[in-house]
Amino acid sequence: MRAAVYATPAPESPLNRLAAAWLGRDAFSGRPTRPADPARDPLVAEPARYGFHATLRAPFTPKPGTDLGTLVDRLGAFCAGRSAPVIGSLVLARLGDFFALVPAVPEPGIAELEGDVLEAFEPYRAELRPEEVARRRPERLTERQRDHLERWGYPFVREDFRFHMTLTGPVPGPADALRADIEAQFGAVLGRPLPLDGLGLFVEPTPGAPFRVHSFHPFRAIAPIQPAGTP
Questions:
Q1: What CATH number does the domain containing 122 carry?
Q2: Domain tally, the chain
Q3: Matching InterPro entries, A to Z (predicted)?
């Protein structure tokens, strides 16, 4: 089992509904959100497995003695003590070969949140196994990213962190038509402020299984929202 801490919209929010319909899967319920689409589904298979989110604490194996209840309690306390950071304007960007929703400009409050989440959950992370390190292809990372991988279990943190909510896997070519489809799907939220609703504890029960939201914690909330069907 692996756990992750992701920024994700609240389950009934407009952004979550739009994203779940785009990906074809809702990470809160685990259920399909639309009929199969042979053209789109291969392009969104990877982000659909992870669920719509922005990574703040990448998937990790909890160290021995750490159970989900411990992580739920820690995340609940973390979110209850913070006000919601706000992205001034949400835009569509192509990052390398995939599309994602990102802040129009760097947001110091988001960077601070990432650093605090990183620190808060590091005590619960088991050390990476050699095969997990190899999977990150350290020979392709910068020296700083290799240091991050050794220290935090993930290379793209701190200075190498960039908030993004992934909408596709790798897309070949210019993909102008796909960009237009995404802009049409998310037009209601593009170019607008986005207060972050809260953080989700996402869980991958077995290797390769779809991630599910185990619990969602609004900022300054008293108790998490448990998605329907979550044990």
A1: 3.90.1140.10
A2: 1
A3: DUF1045
